[in-house]
Each structure stands twice: as structure tokens, then as C-alpha cells.
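Re: weekly structure request thread

Next one in the queue (445 aa):
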Amino acid sequence: MYKVKTKEKVADIEKKKEITKEEKFYWVRVAVAAVSALLGVLVFKLVGWWMFLYMMLLLLGWPFIQSFLIFKLPYQKDKWDWKQILKTGIGGHFFTFMFISTICFTLVSYPAWDDQLSNPADTYDIQIEGNMVYIADGTNGFVILDITNPNHRELMSSYKIDGLNAQKIFVADDIGYLADSNNSILLFDLSDETNPILLSKYQYSNSIASISVQGNLAYVAIGNEGLSILDVSTPSNPSQVGKIDGSISDVVVINNTAYLTDFNEGLKIVNVSDATHPIIMSTLNLEGQMMDLEISDSIIFIAAGEKGMHIVNSSVLDSPQLLGSYNSTANASSIVVNGESAYLSNGEQGISFIDISDLSNPVNITDDKLYNTIGPAYDLAIYNDYLVVADGTKGLTLIYLPEPAAEPDEIVATANKTIPFGWTWGIISLITVTSLVSAIKKREN
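Done, posted below.
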């Protein structure tokens, strides 16, 4: 009896050793998952598919490295159980990696996450200068972001006071001009981007639709009140020196010429060489409601509401000529041009991608389909190979632009939203791991 008991105790001890070894294997995998998640986010700065591939490589490859190099398990061809090696700790590895990477990304890459929860984005208008994005962010006020790395944007500063609802922004010569919903323009000193300083405030009686600045003059489109010209040579004390009647929605000033879109009358070209007595040189009546304009050389691109886009040749200032139009089913409110492509913002309806290589016959690249961002696309800008979208409550959205005339699926496939590694990749990862575990169990049965 004694010998039998001894044999049973030895067997129990051996079994416990095996269990202990399996538990160690499990916890080493969990620890490796935590470390690799930290490295992926903080050191390698991986996002999107690269992060997914990195995780899968560790998930499928590391267990075998661990079994041979750390635990030094002997390899016996007939007895080698690769499925058991792969399966042990796979759930713990996946959960730990996803949890650590998500928390790390939230706390480190987006350090203002707590402020974002209590003050969600309200992005209306943007301007990009160098690597900086200047944002009129509604009730969040004036926000400045560094987008040197588009996937890891850095908050430089923000200016927020009670009652401020930022709607429009223009930056020139280290001075920021911010229009709010209270019909006023706030002038900021931006010589230090980490600390914007309010210099002055100029009040109007109507809402401000657009701002353009050249030299010491600011041109302010104020809807039904027309165009106001401010002397801002002393930013702390701006004063109006000129005015043009009309219903002005947008203004761009080049040299001594102001290009205006009038809600009802189309395009106006104005000589502002004498700001106190601006002279309208020409007017071109166009269909639709003029909302926004962009100028490339002497070609003017106009977002015309339900009439889509108009293209105008202004090489002869007193006789502009309509070259072509794009009729959209959406309501175009903002436009930006990049090479032979134009991008039309249609608010809640999304963005139109237009090929303008033939100015007389602009064509929708996406066969009249719209690219829908998560939020309402209020404003657009170009940063390197990205289309930057002021996306309302969803903040800033970046869309990668691979080619001027990319196919629709290529445009959609390369879209890069605000959160590079989030629910999308979590769902894909979960499905992949679940399928892998299910396949292993089926083979075992």
C-alpha cells in the first residue's frame, strides 16, 4: 500500500508540474502582449493595418519562439502539439494587447481626452499654415493643432471663454481673426502658438460668412450687410475704412483685387487699390446660391449650392467668362482645389471628388456618389497628401488622397478617420482570433 500511495503522489506531483508550466506559459504570453502593445503605440507608433499585422504576427508567431527559447520544450515530431502551444493563452494575449494599446493610445496620443468627453468637437472652419491647423471649434473656441504626424495630432493650445461660439478663422502674419456667432471678430496674437493672446474685438450687426486678409487690411464678408474692409495695422484697434453693398458669402483678395461671391448675384470682381473707395469692376451672374470660392492662377472655382460648382476664367478682370459647371444633386457649401482635382463639401451629404483636368467638362470621379464622412463636412483644406475636413461634432477627419483621379473604392479604402486604431480594428481582430480558435477546436474534435 505504501508503494502504491507513493506512486500516486509522484504522479500527482508530476501533473501539478505540468499544470504549473502551462500557467507560466499563459502568463508569459500575457506579459509579452502588454509590452508589445506599449511598444507598438509609444515606440513604433503603429496605427491601422500596420497595428493589426503587428498584433497578428505576435499572436501567431511568438508562442513558438516562447516554447523553444524560453521554456526550451523538446521538439518531437510525433508528439509535438503545435495547436496546444498556439491555443494556450491566446485569449489573454488578445485581450491584454487590445486593452493596453487602446488605453495607451487614449491617454498618451490624445492627452486631452477628458476634455474631449466634456467638450465634444464642434469644428466649423479650418485653415492650415505649415504643420499647424487653426480651428474655429464652436463652443470649444479657438483651437490650434500640430499635424506633423497626421495620425498623432498634438494640441498646441486652445482659447475658450463663456459665450464664445467660433465659426470662421483666418490667419495671416501671426495674427488670428476669429469670427463668432455673436457677430464679432476677435483678433489674436499668435506669435506663440502655445499661448494665443486676445488683442481686440470688432462688433458687427450681422453674422460673418468669411474673412480674408492682405497686408494691413481685413476683408470681412457679412452676408446681407455686404463686405466690410477693416484697417488692422494696429491689431489692438481695428477700424472700418471701406464697404461694399451686397449679400456677400465669401471673399478672396489677391494683390489689389477682391473676388466676392454674392448669394444672389454670382461673382463680383472688385478693385480695392483704394480701400476707402472700392470699385466693382465686373459682375458675372451665375445659377445657384454662391457659397464659397477658390482661386488657382486666374481660374475661379465656386461652390454654388444646389447647382454644384462653376468654373470661371478671370484673366480679363472686367470680363470674366464661365468655362464650365458641374451639376450636383447635393448642396455644395465649400470647395478646395488640388492640382487637377476639386473637392466639394456638401454638409451632411458628404464630399464630391471632381476631376477638373478639362475645365469645360468637370467630371465626378466617383460616378456622382458622395464620400460620407462621419460628421457634417463644413469646410475643407489640403495638407500634403491629405484632404482635411472640418467634420462638425466629429472634429477633424483626414482622407488620404492617393492619386488625382483615383477610383472610388481606392478613395474609400484609403480613408483615415480621426481614430486610427479603434472599433474597426478591434472587430476585425476579434473575428480573426475567434475564427482561429474555432478552427483549432474543430481539428481537435
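The CA atoms of residues 382 and 388 lie 6 Å apart. The mean pLDDT is 83.
Next request, please.
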